[in-house]
């Protein structure tokens, strides 16, 4: 019903517009083309300058409406993000000034120099001075932006500090897997053909395999593997070693103002220093449901939009408490090796197996 | 001249009909098929490109309306859509994720390649090159015809991919592997992707046949006196466009061929270390998924300029004609086109800053990318100076040209943000990017295309478009374009990722639901307005006001010296000789001096 109604209204509007247009065409023929052009010229000239004024008001209004919903409304949640923000503000002011000046010139000229019988056109075909001016000035301004940009870029892409904690992030359709190196501080070797979605989601090498020519790597035995939620410490640099299990994904960290692709077969890295814990951010953003979300920013299939991870930023002591509760993934497949597991439990299992 | 000989036959025909006035063609030996279908007349081929492009523009636009429906109204149920489109596309009144991604992908592919490449440069290179340089037709009219029919075949294959059981390709128009290589990773990467690649390969052939022809024609077939520096800027722009296409499309094709091998013949160019849920580990090792991105963007970035340059050329011409003033800085305009064309090949990796690219390489690409802003700035200021102290006639073409400049400024400036890798690391693949490229490449080039259509329509059909409809079309479209894409910058500044089917589960992005609804509504209105333009276009072919003078815009260029209805061969009798550049407007107090007017002895020198 509403559909039919909408279609009817659209057709009606079209018909009205068409009739008006046809009428104006007849008027044009009656009055003569010259006269008609002069009349519409005035209207359009006026509309040009109106569009400019309304447009600039619109820009301001849009900003007042939407600014609070962007990340810029709050301080960046990472040390790196501060640099992104300050550079962003500088770029915004430069491009903003150019935007306003050029748009004003464009529409103002259009209005001011609309056709007029009395005006004599100036035959002005070129001027080396002017052209040098608007080659030189943009070049200089851009040099400034390039220099600032490259300094930040080399900082963002520099090696992580030595004391940084390291987390391995692996994307898969459609979720995230996080690995911590465990007590030994070393990530054990993995091989993708070893992957078993149920028990060994990363393909850690903890068994000898003659067919794949693999040897058990003891460093895997204490690796902690987590899905969906990653814990990091406030104020402590964290280095992510990013990979993918299937197609290309992207670790999007909008609150930290960073992102990096997850490419199968080619590990990438990214490091940052979180400034606020999750609970602090809840207060800063005034949103009790606030979460640091990892959004997949590279099209990865039909579930792309649901590929969400969560980062919990906590104080060191909370992190230690959480870490103490984690068990290496190894023990899931080899429960008998778990020293903390109560003896009785393992005997029950042994009996069950028998 | 060589083309004179080649087309001697049609020249004869034109002259023999001179008595009919305006050389209107009454080819008794030309059948419907040779005139309208397998035509070798560049003007007819141009119209074929244009109308096929329009069909795709409507389909591509309709797709965007459909996926905007999902984004704007994620909780609503449109049961009537289910009746129209079927259950694969719409389930329970809602667009399915598979359909959403297929729509996004096809919208991008079709708009970039079929509308803004074939529809834009295919139309205007074919139409304008022979007319403006003074040639009877293209260097090879037959190749030119083939170029269209390869495009037509590409269109058919692409269209057929919409109807396969597993759905059309849905991995984004950039078709990054492994997603695009593995049917097991996404149903859209099965038969749909095979058809997508075939369509794109045919398209590459089409654009190469066209491009080589354009280059050969411009270099070899200019009329007497038409030196390179007397060419209208449209021709310069189309020339660089063709060069870009000829040098970069083959690289894309090579990338696609490797992809075909990976998909069908078990090679590992792009594949390594992959485990697919439900399938298991794949045998491929040692490939690089990033290799494809290099090959893709080696075309992909020049492609942006393939889309933009023709629009720039036409806008330069139209601004000058309707300001009744010479284009400011003709040589600087050519120089900046040249600089853009060179730089276009040296910036592709700015699409790949966050792929793990070597940071030093990234730095080089930052520098080269931001360099493009310099020739772009030159162009903008030259256009502004062209308007300054002119005597502006607001024809619909002129208004779209002014709109183009406005959009090019708005979208170009955000390029300075994204080209700087340290900002791109934050804004990459967010709505900020969508806003940027839709404004600067999508809508701006569309405006260039509209400007071209409004301006050269009288030459194409011997009729005028309805001006009032043109004005309505312009004002709604420019206001709508800004209303749609301006607020998207803010979504991008919130980090909102592209290509999401639904944002309601995201604490960081769900605050924009009202805005998305607003954008979707405006998008529908703007789409409906384009139908108004289409109506104007087709209605005026038959019922439009007849063009009564050869030169309705009082323009200097050669196409306006042809009869109102030029036949195959364009000029009746000799091709006119050229004595001056095309921008003598308002010189020595004379409103306009066509290129065919010899330089007077008393004329001032500039």
Structural class computed from helices and strand pairing of chain B: mainly alpha
* Helix percentage range of chain B: 55-70%
Q: Please compute the radius of gyration of chain B using only Cα atoms.
A: 25 Å
List the chains of the largest interface with their residue counts. Answer: A-B, 125 and 131 residues
Please describe what this structure looks like.
The complex is a heterodimer of chains A (354) and B (606). Chain A has 354 residues and is of the alpha+beta class. Chain A has a domain at 165-339: Cupredoxins -  blue copper proteins (Immunoglobulin-like, Sandwich), CATH 2.60.40.420. Chain A contains 8 helices and 10 strands. Chain A has helices at residues 2-31, 33-66, 79-112, 128-156, 278-284, 316-325, 330-333, 343-353, and strands spanning 165-172, 175-180, 224-227, 229-233, 238-244, 249-253, 258-262, 268-272, 292-296, 308-314. In chain A, strands 3-2-1-5-8 form a 5-stranded mixed β-sheet, with no helix packed on it. Chain A has a 5-stranded mixed β-sheet with strand order 4-10-9-6-7. Chain A starts with a helix and ends with a helix. Chain B is mainly α and 606 residues long. Chain B has a single domain, classed as Cytochrome c oxidase-like, subunit I domain (Cytochrome C Oxidase, Chain A), CATH 1.20.210.10. Helix content of chain B is 61%, strand content 3%. In chain B, helix 6 crosses helix 16 (431-461), helix 9 (233-264) packs parallel to helix 11 and helix 17 runs antiparallel to helix 19.
